[in-house]
Amino acid sequence: MPKVTEDQLAARRGAILDAARRAFARHGYEGATVKVLEAETGLSRGAIFHHFRDKEALFLALAEDDAARTAATVAEYGLVQVMRDLREKDAGWLGVQLEVRRKLRTDPEFAERWAERQQQVRAATEERLVRQREAGVVRTDIPVPILADFLRLVLDGLVSSRATGMPVDHLDGVLDLVEDAVRTPSTVVR
To answer: What is residue 186's DSSP assignment?
Structure first.
């Protein structure tokens, strides 16, 4: 039997994640049964769950990948850039985000595990705000954790709106307003 390389395993795992994202977006978490996942991936149950312990681990892997990408973008460009990038997100990404929010509301164990993952995004947001404050760009009259919560709430609202079909016609104007709200008044560009 030929040996499978690490690259082949990683490619298979990535293909499973891509197909699972489509399945979760199209059918929701509960509707993405093992049969649906098999049909979407073109793989057997054993092949799918060789890479992921169970359906929840597969779903959490999708959400973790999204959180890691978000944290990296926040660290380099800020949370508003994550919001600007929403225009490029496909239905699969948006569907998974809606499912994450639903599971946060209905599954206390998932919410507990997810809180650990979200700490990475929160820390990156606060660190960037502190750096921007030290550079004189971010206002000083509001504590950094409150600014971070404000940005997170706006992001959550935008994700929900985009996932339900909100057009992006005025997104730049809305996000300019959000940036103006956190910037030092002398750095606001008109």
So the answer is: G
CA distance 82 to 146: 18
Which residues are CB-contacts of 17 (< 8 A; sequence separation ≥ 6)? 58, 61, 62, 65
- Give the burial class of 65: count Cβ atoms within 10 A of its Cβ; 0-12 exposed, 13-18 middle, 19 or more buried: middle
Angle at 77 between CA 73 and CA 81, to 5 degrees: 80
In this predicted structure, what is the pLDDT of residue 147?
95
Instruction: Name the pTM for this structure.
Output: 0.76
For the packed helices 144-163 and 171-182, what is the interaxial angle rounded to 10 degrees? 170
Domains and CATH numbers, the chain: 6-187 (1.10.357.10)
**Nearest one of 73, 171, 75, 61 to 117, comparing CA atoms:** 61
State pLDDT tens for residues 65-95. Answer: 888 888 888 888 988 898 888 888 877 778 7
